[in-house]
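Below: protein 1.
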Amino acid sequence: MQTNTPSRSTIRLTRRGRFALATLGALVAGTAVAVPLLIMKGDDEARPTTLVIPEGWRAGQVYSAIDKTLDLPAGTTKKSVAKADLKLPNEAEGNPEGYLFPATYPLEDKPTPQRLLSRMVDTANKKFNGAPIAAGAQRNAMNVYQAVTVASIVQAEAATKADMGKIARVIFNRLERGMPLQMDSTVNYALGRSTPGATDADTQVDSPYNSYQRMGLPPTPIDSPGEDAVRAAINPTPGDWLYFVTVRPGDTRFTADLAEHQRNVAEVEAQREKSGEPART
């Protein structure tokens, strides 16, 4: 039976894909993980020899990291995208978001932004265009670019690897039912920020990335997904879930029942109130 979408005044989606009652406020969760950007080798500690791109970084973060690593003026790498001759899918329309594959890249003699960007995109194409990913995307009635877009949302929303397949299933279930995704991660991408949660005012932003206001997937990926997120996007865990909320670290609860979800959210808000943390509105 098809489930109707609750009105936004009744229910909203918070960071990492957690739905929460608007009257109760948004859930703020997640732990920032420090990832080393540069690995130094040899006697010359002043010169980095590798560049680490973590899973979930946006293109803007990658550009800044390359500028810093190569000691270039801020904005240099971004300006070089147009002349880098990146082998991007047609759907990307020249935007490398999602295709700057997270990995460790060695820095050869005289590296340039164009070479580094090309290597990242070439790595992504090798990962994404292989038979398993292409077949998995087709199995889920998607093309590869759409699968990467789903994976980017999964990457942004999942608190743990174990949650990724279930989050992918929530995305597919909501798309199949004609429900908006209502993902705070896409709203925050539209706003150019990475802070947790989104307020009601945030969800009014006029952007094709606002999955509260727009139906379907955003027009591009919203970050660089890793292999675990991509696998989850093409092999979502079987289930009928439409909502999920992380009650406490390691305890993310998925459900298709709104009343059950409301009880889970109430438990979260009770913990917030007990700790003195203010609710987001």
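Below: protein 2.
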Amino acid sequence: MTKKIIGITLGDPAGIGPEIALKAFTKEELYKKSKPLLIGDSSIVNYYLEKHPELNLNVNIIDKPADGQYEFGKIDLIDLGIIDMSTFEIGKVSAVGGDAAFQYVKKVIELALAKEIDATVTNPLNKEAMNLAGHHYAGHTEIYANLTDTDKYTMMLADGNLRVVHVSTHVSLREACDRATKDRVLDVIRIADKACKDLGMENPRIAVAGLNPHCGENGLFGTEEIEHINPAVEEAKSEGINAYGSLPADTIFSKANGGMYDIVVAMYHDQGHIPLKLLGFVYDQEKGAWQAVRGVNITLGLPIIRTSVDHGTAFDVAGEWMASEVSLENAIDYAIQLAENSK
């Protein structure tokens, strides 16, 4: 199978994105299974390479993906030339950092839409910095949806056996309840089913969470399950989708993590995020540091492939060379898998 070109953004250059990207590029395995391409700034990349000569990496600046050499020990980079390291500060929120992060994302989307690359992977950006730069988005997901003219999309988080998609994400909890309509739940069930099949599952098992405690107890604690969620599940079943629900949210994730279901449809942001991060984010109290930061964020429903790390810019430790690249490596692996299974 021909190795896929994976476009990887640098993220906000003031955050940990550049660090974990360079750490990922030191792994020979990355080059054995893909053609990794970095989109960012040579100034910030060279800044870290000069600080860490032990990485033994060279930069190959190219104009287009087809010009890449994709050889271990060499970083093929599309340089947007935005950051001036003589004035730029690591670990600080800034408009220039926010603009750079946005421009990297915009570029990688353009490359994917033009079919010059096979998948995109994003490092973390900072929403405050991006908005300071005049790019008013809630996050990566909304940028991708807007720049690809996509109406029906959702976020999927994954770590090991647990995969979660969301009916709503970056809205208030009050608004999230209003968004749990039959049509939206059904759309997300369909997207979840397709995503699992794109990952190679023939007949995925889709578990659909309730919105209310105990799924409303037949209307005692709310009627959203009766009026919207359960009818969406039944319609999905009539379409041949292997859907279950609604199921109580306090047990559904444990069942999915144990292998009973392949993916969970969560009704709102924290309902899905908390169980994923409880599993993937492991804090070592004795060392006072994160032992593991795992998990992948995938935007489903787009005409292109997008995966991402499932953590933020971590400005407080940026530049200290202590950030883990595991989440980025997981995101790259998912991007490769989706690209190889893509029709």
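The chain has two domains: 4-150+310-341, 154-276.
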